[in-house]
Amino acid sequence: MATQSSRSAARLMMAPAVILLLGWMLVPLVMTLLFSFKKYLPLRGGDLGWVGFENYVRFVTSSAFWPSVSATLIIVGGVLIITVGLGVLLAILLNQPMWGQGIVRILVISPFFVMPTVSALVWKNMFMDPVNGLFAHIWKFFGAAPIEWLSQASMQSIILIVSWQWLPFATLILLTAIQSLDREQLEAAEMDGAAPLQRFGYVTLPHLGRAITVVVLIQTIFLLGIFAEIFVTTQGSFGTRTLTYLIYQRVLESQNVGLGSAGGVYAIILANIIAIFLMRMVGKNLDQ
Asked: Which of 41, 102, 181, 235 is most exposed, with the fewest beta carbons within 10 Å of its own?
């Protein structure tokens, strides 16, 4: 057992890292809160004084606020449905014995290591371009008119691009969970006459419950701040302006740091509400 002196020594050695992490998180948060109560226009007068909750009221009552929240939630929900659904199927397939299994797994996971801006550019220019894109050539081959994906199906395009990036992550977590499944359970269900779909529904899927909740939690936290894909493709047009992109427009395009900081506080509140809900869901699954 650890003695009191060893615990004290451990806390002392961990203190610099903890202080650094707290400073890394708290300083930007405090500055955001401070600026949210000020009228701060860097290129038009600088700090124009304290305005109280005016920035919060202006941001939440603007015509773009609720559509941006809706767009954010739609993208997050769409990506989660695709990545979890396809992730389960891919994990099951990759768990089957096949030739070159290791290489196939690496190829499936590799998109997760591509930078968001790079993957968005690839999808925009190589796949979704209405003239020279791969999808345009496929449409022309079948005698159909090419679709301008980023304007006619902008939300679906963003969801597709982001899902392609996050599908490997979900697949990797779910594959790990499937590999921990006791084969004796599946063999017992098969001996009892259970069909493949029944074995999946009553044995495999319940076993994946914890892994699915972890995937949903981690992906949601990151997806709430989606920005690069939208900036590269639609730049917030055609109904794809998320809350993060709206904050960017208020800060950099409108040069209104105070208004953008108030939007950042709203984004933090939204993220915490969703995170608390998901943490409770994860806790319930882990207790089972």
From this structure: 102
Candidates 22, 83, 86; CA nearest to 214 is 83
**Of 123, 129, 203, 105, residue with least CA distance to 163:** 123
Give the sign of the dihedral formed by CA 35, CA 36, CA 42, CA 46: negative
Average pLDDT, whole number, for the chain? 82
pLDDT of residue 288: 56
Q: Which residues pair with 47 in a beta bridge?
A: 40
Distance CA 270, CA 272 (A): 5
Amino acid (1-letter code) at residue 32: T
Return the structure tokens found at 135: 């999808």
Q: Which residues lie closer than 8 Å to 42 by C-beta, 6 or more apart?
A: 255, 257
Residues in the chain: 288
CA distance 51 to 258: 9
pTM for the predicted model, two decimal places: 0.83
* Whether 255 contacts 35, CB under 8 Å: no
Q: CB-based contacts of 194: which residues, under 8 Å, 6+ apart?
A: 202, 203
What's the rounded Cα separation, in Å, for the pair 157 and 164?
Answer: 11
